[in-house]
Amino acid sequence: MNDMLTINATDARKNWSQIIDNAVREKPQFIKRTRDCMILANEAIFADMLSVYTFSATELIEEDGSVTLSSNELDLAENAATKEESTLKLAQSILDYATDFYNDFSLWSGAPNRKAHIPYVLRALLLDDIHKIGACISCQVGKN
Fold it and tell me: Domain check: are 30 and 75 in the same one?
């Protein structure tokens, strides 16, 4: 990171209110403490950055006519009588998974098979609504 753009953590502490105001109203703030670098940004900027992460699922029609949706990004699948019901159930599973992942972030973010889930987890947490998450799930028909 360009040192001219970073704020020393000591200076950030001294001017904390101004730093937050700048992050919320102007632009993200880069803060450095020894070797640790952080970005402070408002929620809207973060949501915009994560908007490219969409959810997709493979749609399977079961022998009984029910619909199973299997997430392509996360290890989740849900089944219900209709595609709409399956979508909402999968959205709820995504939100539940995101919450569990975040609550034990140090464990899950370090797991090699889960690290790629981080942007999807953060996107789901920012959406925080199964209808909004469901609207982000695109489905492709699969084969049983």
Answer: no
Q: How far apart are CA 92 and CA 98, in angstroms?
A: 10
Lay out the sheet containing 67-71: strands in order across.
77-80, 67-71, 55-61, 137-141
Which residue type, as a one-letter code, is found at position 92? Answer: Q
* 130/95 Cα distance (integer angstroms): 7
- Gyration radius (Cα) of the chain, Å: 19
Using the structure block, give the residue that is written with the tokens 């937050």: 20
Q: Given a cut of 90, is residue 5 above it in pLDDT?
A: no
Domain extent for 25: 6-41
Instruction: Compute the residue count for the chain.
Output: 144
Q: Note whether 32 and 61 are same-domain residues.
A: no
pLDDT tens per residue, range 26-42 = 999 999 998 899 999 99
101 burial level (CB within 10 Å; 0-12, 13-18, 19+): buried
Please state, in angstroms and rounded to a whole number, the distance separating the CA atoms of residues 31 and 143. Answer: 49
